[in-house]
Amino acid sequence: MRIIKRVFNNNVVSAVGKDGNDVILVGSGLGYLAKKGMKVHEDRVEREFHLTGLGKDGAFRILLEIPTPVIAAVSALVKEVRTRFNYTLTPAAEVALADHLAQAIERSENGENLPNPMLWDTRTSYPQEYLLAERMLAIVETSLGVQLPEDEAGFVALHFVNAGIFSGSQRALSHSAALSHVLEIIRNELDLDLPPNSPITRRFVTHLKFVMERITSGRTHAGTLDPVFESLRENHPDARACAARVSDYLQEEFSEQLSDEEDFYLMLHLIRARDAFAAEMRPPESEQ
Length: 288
Known about the structure:
alpha+beta; Transcription Regulation, Sacy, Chain A; PTS-regulatory domain, PRD; 3 domains; 4-stranded antiparallel sheet
């Protein structure tokens, strides 16, 4: 028997686990009319996470924003991966994948499609991860009734690449060290200290991981930038300079030069992160 410790919303609660440690429980209607001290409706629990795997990198805060059916769909694949490959995705990696899928589903429902220029390269370079991505999209279609475009399979595959399911952990360790240095560059160049417990930081870090994966595989984006993008560069010289500094470091670290397109998207993510944190720090209009 587990006892509810806190109700976050209708679908997410925290409880004291059987081992005495706090756990996050997710399930449709699990928190509805529930209160602290009540018994957990175990038959409604679809997924549980230990806080040690979520709290340090902002994944827990993102988890609260993800629709429960999406979490359930990802959990179904996680179980398959554990059974077939004897590999368990970290809670943070699982939440990052669910967050990506939730956004992809929202784009699909709005009639928006995010083109993936690296789809063919991803499919041929990471065939095992791509097959898992196709399986993930099939589960989404079956359980949620949403058919995501093939481009998304490429994006999802990179989540499995970053997780190291088939490639081992050595590359992940190298990327982790580079990531720490990039965050230090951003802190110095933009006076922007990205808090580790923020969803904004989590999404930015996910983008950086994808960039490093493409660099180390020699498959960076390459294309012609629209003139509108060029004007954005001119309007944000500090972000442009920071992106250039990060690009120089990554080139030195991995012996591979970023394309202009990669530079631009890196700058764009920097602008978004900075603006998002500025908005969070801005006091409500009633207090101004």
